Amino acid sequence: MRSRNPFFYERFGVPDTVDGRFDMILLHSFCVINALNKQGQGGRELAQALYDVMFVDMDRSVREMGVGDLSVGKHVRRMMKAFNGRMHAYQAGIDNASLDEALMRNLYGTVTGTVDPTNLTIMGDYIRNQVAALNTMNPDRLMQGDIEWAPVPGAGIKQRAPIVEPQKTDQAVA
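Structure for CBP3 protein, as requested:
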């Protein structure tokens, strides 16, 4: 639930919209999946399971927003494509300035007007800090989903992620 923290929207100018919230979910998912992928085969399998559960939930969310059954698959595929593109952009930019460019294009892409460059820098640093923290945390805790996020800069917020058991579903994501 870290991505829903109002601080990102109120202080750092992330749009408090469906798109802004979607991008915050993708950013935090990137951080976790990036760390899991470094934990060998078991980590890669868990990363894939997280991806699968995430998009089953996206499917449910799209339906709850009133998208018709015939269009849901198309919407979810578009979201998956967006996620995959962002994963590559964030991975490529984690060690350089192209992360800020990717954040500007994606996280702040729907902002009308000027994006405060300080917010962009803070968000880039925030993501880099999360990746570093997750890459150095105890692998057993990471694999159990016992994630401790690095603090949000300037917010004094440090948060543990609740361990959530995935719901079983018969739905397949197209």
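Helices lie at 6-10, 18-36, 40-64, 69-93, 98-106, 117-136, 139-143.
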